[in-house]
């Protein structure tokens, strides 16, 4: 079946036909009118690639190298797995299946703190995957400390702090039909007695109740500095959408920046991530690696993000679709599609390496670029 799904859109269509309405709504929806969700997709479509001709593309290289803290990474294809909650809604093996695919691709997987498999169990099955652990700032700072300590002891190489969710965004369909985690699934990282404060009462909406009970709306730059100073792992900041905030993140000790608007699930009518990326790249000015997620649906999109300076992209929903249709093999299929499409785009645009792509001036431009030439 997987071989008949030749692009990510095919995988999405098949996955949505297999999901229950509750799962489909939870994975698919954006905040309020979903303007940000749509803009993430539309912004990539609005970007054009100006190809070069008669360039020897018989051999190309799409690997990417960078450092986070004192760890050097060599990623064969610059596509990683973004953090997303509750993978066992998509497939019974959940995050175990996902990390096996990440290991096969030798790429980075960012495990959500709201995973349905514990960080320790995921780490034991990680193989050649590079594991980072996603974190929120909780009212109880000891909760943060204990989670980071567990991640460190389990072999995770970085903490990814989500900074764009002081509360969760308003999601209208979940307001009409509150999401409830099925009783056989758990917030696996919070199951031990030391985390019993995080339990939700029977019948509660789960994620919303969790956020309302624990998220700290008073978080500020001091909290990022506190985490950087106390964490044994380097801290990557996720949710940056402005150049000046990127600078403050770096000055606060962040070892990397992920340009992200939470997949369009937080602030409605925000810009897309790929629109913001050039501003963040200019502000950071090479001091730390910059990554991007949101709206990536093809290798063509990956190419555009790389051309605008990103070290690599992270994908969220496409991984969940692959997981739904084929478990670990389905996730691998999605990653393989993006890799193959990126290789085609590299060759057809006349480029043999990511370094060459990023050094090519005005390679990726908005569609209005040509109107200005008239």
UniProtKB/TrEMBL annotation:
<feature type="binding site">
    <location>
        <position position="265"/>
    </location>
    <ligand>
        <name>glyoxylate</name>
    </ligand>
</feature>
<dbReference type="InterPro" id="IPR037396">
    <property type="entry name" value="FMN_HAD"/>
</dbReference>
<dbReference type="InterPro" id="IPR013785">
    <property type="entry name" value="Aldolase_TIM"/>
</dbReference>
<feature type="binding site">
    <location>
        <position position="134"/>
    </location>
    <ligand>
        <name>FMN</name>
    </ligand>
</feature>
<dbReference type="GO" id="GO:0003973">
    <property type="term" value="F:(S)-2-hydroxy-acid oxidase activity"/>
</dbReference>
<feature type="binding site">
    <location>
        <position position="171"/>
    </location>
    <ligand>
        <name>glyoxylate</name>
    </ligand>
</feature>
<feature type="binding site">
    <location>
        <begin position="293"/>
        <end position="297"/>
    </location>
    <ligand>
        <name>FMN</name>
    </ligand>
</feature>
<dbReference type="GO" id="GO:0001561">
    <property type="term" value="P:fatty acid alpha-oxidation"/>
</dbReference>
<feature type="binding site">
    <location>
        <position position="136"/>
    </location>
    <ligand>
        <name>glyoxylate</name>
    </ligand>
</feature>
<feature type="binding site">
    <location>
        <position position="112"/>
    </location>
    <ligand>
        <name>FMN</name>
    </ligand>
</feature>
<feature type="binding site">
    <location>
        <position position="260"/>
    </location>
    <ligand>
        <name>glyoxylate</name>
    </ligand>
</feature>
<keyword id="KW-0288">FMN</keyword>
<feature type="binding site">
    <location>
        <begin position="316"/>
        <end position="317"/>
    </location>
    <ligand>
        <name>FMN</name>
    </ligand>
</feature>
<protein>
    <recommendedName>
        <fullName>(S)-2-hydroxy-acid oxidase</fullName>
        <ecNumber>1.1.3.15</ecNumber>
    </recommendedName>
</protein>
<feature type="binding site">
    <location>
        <begin position="83"/>
        <end position="85"/>
    </location>
    <ligand>
        <name>FMN</name>
    </ligand>
</feature>
<feature type="binding site">
    <location>
        <position position="162"/>
    </location>
    <ligand>
        <name>FMN</name>
    </ligand>
</feature>
<feature type="binding site">
    <location>
        <position position="238"/>
    </location>
    <ligand>
        <name>FMN</name>
    </ligand>
</feature>
<dbReference type="Pfam" id="PF01070">
    <property type="entry name" value="FMN_dh"/>
</dbReference>
<feature type="active site" description="Proton acceptor">
    <location>
        <position position="262"/>
    </location>
</feature>
<feature type="binding site">
    <location>
        <position position="26"/>
    </location>
    <ligand>
        <name>glyoxylate</name>
    </ligand>
</feature>
<keyword id="KW-0285">Flavoprotein</keyword>
<dbReference type="GO" id="GO:0010181">
    <property type="term" value="F:FMN binding"/>
</dbReference>
<feature type="domain" description="FMN hydroxy acid dehydrogenase">
    <location>
        <begin position="1"/>
        <end position="367"/>
    </location>
</feature>
<keyword id="KW-0560">Oxidoreductase</keyword>
<feature type="binding site">
    <location>
        <position position="262"/>
    </location>
    <ligand>
        <name>glyoxylate</name>
    </ligand>
</feature>
<comment type="similarity">
    <text>Belongs to the FMN-dependent alpha-hydroxy acid dehydrogenase family.</text>
</comment>
<dbReference type="InterPro" id="IPR000262">
    <property type="entry name" value="FMN-dep_DH"/>
</dbReference>
<dbReference type="InterPro" id="IPR008259">
    <property type="entry name" value="FMN_hydac_DH_AS"/>
</dbReference>
<dbReference type="InterPro" id="IPR012133">
    <property type="entry name" value="Alpha-hydoxy_acid_DH_FMN"/>
</dbReference>
<dbReference type="GO" id="GO:0005782">
    <property type="term" value="C:peroxisomal matrix"/>
</dbReference>
């Amino acid at each position: 079946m997987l071989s008949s799904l030749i692009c990510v859109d095919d995988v999405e269509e098949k996955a949505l036909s297999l999901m229950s309405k509750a799962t489909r709504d939870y994975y698919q929806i954006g905040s309020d009118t979903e303007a940000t969700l749509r803009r993430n997709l539309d912004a990539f479509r609005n970007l054009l690639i100006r190809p070069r001709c008669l360039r020897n593309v018989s051999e190309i290289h799409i690997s990417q190298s960078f450092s986070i803290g004192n760890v050097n990474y060599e990623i064969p294809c610059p596509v990683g797995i973004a953090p997303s909650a509750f993978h066992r809604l998509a497939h019974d093996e959940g995050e175990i299946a996902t990390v096996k695919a990440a290991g096969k691709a030798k790429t980075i997987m960012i495990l959500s703190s709201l995973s349905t498999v514990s960080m320790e169990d995921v780490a034991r099955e990680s193989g050649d995957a590079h594991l980072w652990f996603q974190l929120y700032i909780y009212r109880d700072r000891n909760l943060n400390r204990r989670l980071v300590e567990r991640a460190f002891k389990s072999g995770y190489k970085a903490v990814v702090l989500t900074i764009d969710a002081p509360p969760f965004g308003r999601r209208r369909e979940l307001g009409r039909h509150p999401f409830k985690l099925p009783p056989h699934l758990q917030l696996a990282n919070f199951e031990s007695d030391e985390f019993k404060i995080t339990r939700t009462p029977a019948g509660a909406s789960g994620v919303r109740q969790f956020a309302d009970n624990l998220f700290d709306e008073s978080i500020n730059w001091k909290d990022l500095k506190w985490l950087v100073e106390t964490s044994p792992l380097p801290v990557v900041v996720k949710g940056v959408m402005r150049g000046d905030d990127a600078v403050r993140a770096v000055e606060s000790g962040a070892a990397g920046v992920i340009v992200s608007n939470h997949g369009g699930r937080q602030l409605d009518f925000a810009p897309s991530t790929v629109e913001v990326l050039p501003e963040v790249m200019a502000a950071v000015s090479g001091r730390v690696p910059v990554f991007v997620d949101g709206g990536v649906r093809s290798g063509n999109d990956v190419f555009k993000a790389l051309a605008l300076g990103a070290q690599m992209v992270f994908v969220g929903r496409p991984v969940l679709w692959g997981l739904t249709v084929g478990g670990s093999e389905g996730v691998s299929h999605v990653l393989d599609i993006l890799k193959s499409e990126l290789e085609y785009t590299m060759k057809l645009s006349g480029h043999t390496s990511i370094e060459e792509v990023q050094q090519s001036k005005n390679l990726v431009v908005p569609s209005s670029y040509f109107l200005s030439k008239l």
